[in-house]
Specification:
59% helix; 25 helices; alpha/beta; disordered C terminus; elongated; 10-stranded mixed beta sheet
Length: 693
């Protein structure tokens, strides 16, 4: 009996050593901290850090921060944050504002360094090496509060984009400075060290940005049916890149961020895979990292004497002031709002990962003393609290301002509560069409994407309806995982085309996504006739699609539109969807069309989508535009019905000629929403069957 109680008592000996108990305590904190602090309107990040202080070795000593399990999860969380930052970064926005990122990176590096060095050297009395290393610590920052802006839906704001870009620049510069100072303290800089560092960066960049995307694309295609393997592969890439960076003498956080950039275009932001990545990060890895940050904080150092308190206050005030000045100058130069300045300051003022790396390494090398070490621990806690409060407030203000901002005509789809209908002829071959619908769907719409099955009106109609729903179950699960509502609609009709037309009207559909009709054989010709019937009878935006390869493998979208298309009723909607697709796939858009159309597109706010314009007016030979089309392009051809401004007779047969010219390209023919005119339904012209001309 005594042995039994002894075993139980041993399990609760402080600090806990049982990995199951440790994990249970961490999960309890992750679960309860946000719930408790929500009542006081305190950001959950602060709660997790404070909880880490309480349970850590300098608090109740429940858990040792050096425990292998805690250390592992902490490392995973840190790399995960940097990976998500790279993954969620709007590359189009980042490239468009790279000069602004360079300016902010310069300010957020030079200004804290310039302010911090005299404070450490003249006010606190440290030597040049210690002062320079401590001042460089002020220049670093960890994007601890990035989950706040991501959750608030403002992560794509330009202020966030340049802050992320500046973060990588300044942290990379500081870590290189750390390596140089350590080399100097060990006997002076040498060219061999600098050469090794340069070679490491080149080799690392070549592997991450040239080799890994190709392997990832190949793996995603080969493991198309095993969706869970996609997530495992992504995790492998993150930690492989982190380890690879470490081998080259670079901090692993740089490797994780580079992995995010490398996979950015291959993982659309609205995909189920992206949802899984964010889910596991935000629910497990990142919260445990934040708890581990708090476990480093030793509150007792405040009571070790006035020197520790003064140094901690001096370091904290200098760090916060330096980052605020950098944000202020950035605001002034680029004419940002006060809210955007606060976003920049909030994101860049928290110190954790790189700060700890600099100070711990400097302390172990004998360059820094324990006063700087203890003062930095207090600095980490205070700056994380300040950053969380500022980011929470400013991100909320920015989200409200974006919601209330006036919208251009192209944004009206968000308020129209768009409805997308995807008729399904073969449930076993719909993956690309469903994926296209999910990528194009406006997330603000409360309506689900409807998958429609039309079954024959015969004695087996009910059996066919049940079978259809079972076959679509997998696709519905993928959509639900991506937090996008999908519903299954089944109807009975003697004619599939009539069923689609009727359902589109009943559901008040805005967009109908149809498969590309076949071109040979009796059944295929009948299907072509059905598609023609649907196009002519449905006054909706029609997307006729043939997706030849995985959507993520396309490197560019080529849009071909006839003259006067900008005057048609559905112009804004199809342009909005092209922009959305460009952003999700992180690819540029080449527009081939009339200069007047291109002028209208340029005048609209297209969310940073990179448009390239080439004039094309030779509609006597429209396929001559094919000289501009490359192997990995997605072709989007905008057509029109007879009787409309942009209609030309040659458009009626161009889809088929397009198919014959580019049989192995992904093709989408768009019929914008039109007002049905008298005589349109009486036309006998077939849109997808070639004729002699």
């Amino acid at each position: 009996m005594n042995d039994f109680f002894s075993d139980i008592t041993h399990e609760f000996t402080l600090p806990f050593t049982n990995p199951v108990l440790i994990f249970a305590v961490l999960l309890a904190i992750v679960l309860l901290a946000p719930i408790l602090l929500k009542r006081f309107n305190v950001p959950s990040i602060i709660g997790l850090i404070v909880a880490g202080v309480i349970i850590g070795p300098f608090g109740l000593n429940l858990i040792d921060n050096n425990h292998p399990g805690v250390s592992m999860f902490s490392t995973i969380g840190l790399l995960y944050i940097m990976f998500i930052v790279g993954l969620e970064l709007d590359l189009n926005e980042f490239v468009a504002n790279k000069n602004k990122s360079l300016v902010f990176g310069f300010f957020t590096f030079i200004l804290p360094l310039s302010i911090g060095f005299p404070v450490c050297h003249y006010l606190l009395g440290y030597d040049i090496n210690a002062s320079f290393l401590t001042a460089s610590m002020f220049a670093t920052h960890t994007l601890v509060t990035y989950p706040i802006v991501s959750r608030m839906g403002v992560a794509k704001n330009q202020a966030v984009a340049i802050t992320v870009g500046g973060t990588i620049l300044t942290d990379t510069a500081v870590l290189i400075i750390l390596a140089l100072i350590l080399s100097s303290s060990d006997g002076g800089l040498n060219l061999i060290f600098l050469l090794k560092l340069l070679v490491s960066l080149i080799v690392f960049s070549a592997i991450v940005f040239l080799l890994i995307p190709r392997i990832t694309k190949w793996f995603f295609q080969k493991a198309e049916g095993e969706k869970y393997l996609h997530y495992i592969f992504v995790l492998f890439v993150v930690f492989f890149c982190g380890f690879l960076a470490e081998l080259g003498g670079i901090e692993p956080i740089i490797g994780a961020f580079a992995a995010g950039l490398a996979l950015n275009r291959l993982i659309p932001h609205s995909s189920a895979l992206m949802n899984r990545i964010e889910f596991f990060g935000n629910s497990l890895f990142i919260p445990i990292f934040l708890i581990s940050v708090g476990m480093l904080v030793n509150i007792s150092v405040v009571f070790n004497g006035l020197t520790t308190v003064l140094i901690a206050l001096a370091l904290t005030v200098t760090a916060v002031f330096g980052k605020w000045v950098a944000a202020f100058f950035t605001q002034v130069i680029f004419k940002y709002s006060v809210t955007q300045r606060n976003i920049i300051f909030g994101l860049s003022s928290s110190h954790a990962a790189a700060t700890i790396a600099v100070i711990i390494v400097g302390y172990n090398a004998g360059i820094l003393d324990e006063y700087i070490l203890n003062g930095t621990i207090i600095l980490i806690l205070l700056t994380c609290i300040v950053a969380s409060l500022v980011t929470q407030k400013s991100a909320k203000e920015l989200a409200i301002s974006q919601e209330n901002a006036p919208f251009a005509e192209s944004d009206l789809g968000a308020f129209a509560q768009e409805k997308i209908l995807v008729p399904i002829a073969n449930p076993s071959n719909i993956g690309h069409h469903v994926e296209l619908a999910l990528l194009m769907k406006d997330k603000k719409s409360v309506n689900a994407v409807s998958l429609l099955g039309v079954v024959p009106n015969n004695e087996e109609a009910e059996k066919n309806i049940v079978s259809f729903r079972k076959q679509l179950k997998e696709f519905v699960q993928n959509a639900v995982a991506a937090e996008i509502d999908v519903d299954i609609v089944t109807t009975i009709d003697h004619n599939a085309a009539s069923g689609i037309v009727r359902t589109a009207r009943e559901l008040m559909t805005d967009i109908v996504i149809l498969g590309w009709p076949g071109k040979t054989g009796v059944l295929e010709k009948l299907l072509g006739d059905k598609v023609d019937l649907i196009i002519k009878n449905v006054d909706k935006n029609m997307f006729i699609c043939h997706i030849e390869q995985e959507l993520i493998t396309h490197k560019r979208i080529v849009v071909i539109s006839p003259p006067l298309v900008e005057r048609e009723l559905g112009f804004d909607l199809w342009l909005q969807k092209v922009v959305k697709l460009s952003q999700e796939l992180s690819v540029p858009v080449l527009h081939l069309g009339h200069p007047d159309t291109q002028a209208v597109i340029s005048s609209k706010k297209n969310g940073g989508a990179p448009f390239i314009f080439k004039q094309f007016v030779d509609w006597h030979d429209p396929l001559s535009c094919g000289d501009n089309i490359r192997e990995d392009d997605m072709i989007i051809f905008v057509s029109a019905h007879q009787g409309y401004l942009s209609h030309m007779s040659i458009l009626d047969h161009l889809p088929t000629r397009l198919e014959e010219r580019f049989p192995h390209h992904s093709r989408i023919v768009i019929y914008p929403k039109q007002r049905v005119v008298e005589g349109l339904l009486e036309s006998d012209d077939s849109l997808f069957v070639p004729s002699n001309f």
